[in-house]
Amino acid sequence: MNRIDRRFAALKQAERVALVPYVTAGHPLPESTVPVLHAAVRAGADLLEIGMPFSDVMADGPVIQNAHERALAQGTGLDQVLDMVRAFRQDDPETPIILMGYANPIERRGAERFAGQAAEAGVDGLLIVDCPADEADQLQACLKDRGIHQIFLVAPTTTENRLKHASRLAGGFVYYVSIKGVTGAASLDVDSLAPVIARVREKIDLPVAVGFGIREPAQAAAVSATADAVVIGSALVERLDRCETSDEAITVVADFLAPVRQAMDNSAFVVSEKIVRPA
Question: Would you please indicate which residues are annotated as catalytic (active-site) residues?
Fold first, then answer.
């Protein structure tokens, strides 16, 4: 069983919502990435999402665009990303890792070759922003053969036809984009989530992660009442951008994620209490 499946099964049994931080590989420094990933796990992260630096990150806002530019300028390419995953796996064989990126670097390398290298490094999931489900058969086949889940984005504007395709190919979980626009571009309307997540669950029998627009513990707690996972990216990357050393980056991750984890756990306890002992 894929690490993602095992982790969500354990979380479900524990009645716990997953915290999934996003960081860009090589940002703020190439040598900080692996320590930051370990720090995130210590602070309560259940899965890790790692951005593969690319020059045209069209789904991302200025904060993550800048992180990709900095990472590329410091020599972080696909080979370096996979090396970082290997290094992380030396001390953490269990935490699921999802690589997030764009199709161009993978197409240049070749889907078969990339999938083999990713599996060998210890990657569990792949989210390619510009590879929707109705165009994903070839890549998905390569990943499936190596036990890697392809994660698909579902947005407020996703059509029924694309939901149908995603239900056929998706593995691990579904990433629900909670706002219309790029990462970090708008505030999240938590009240609107429940009905759209219910619609996704009707079509796809997988955990639903919610990302884009979640910037603080209170929002994460509110989302955790509905979703199976909470993804936080731009708010963390923005703080990391101010770090000049790995030690500073480790401290930032701990200080930012620990209150988020606590707020999510407190929210889950309140919901459970209401279910068990209604007023």
Answer: 49, 60
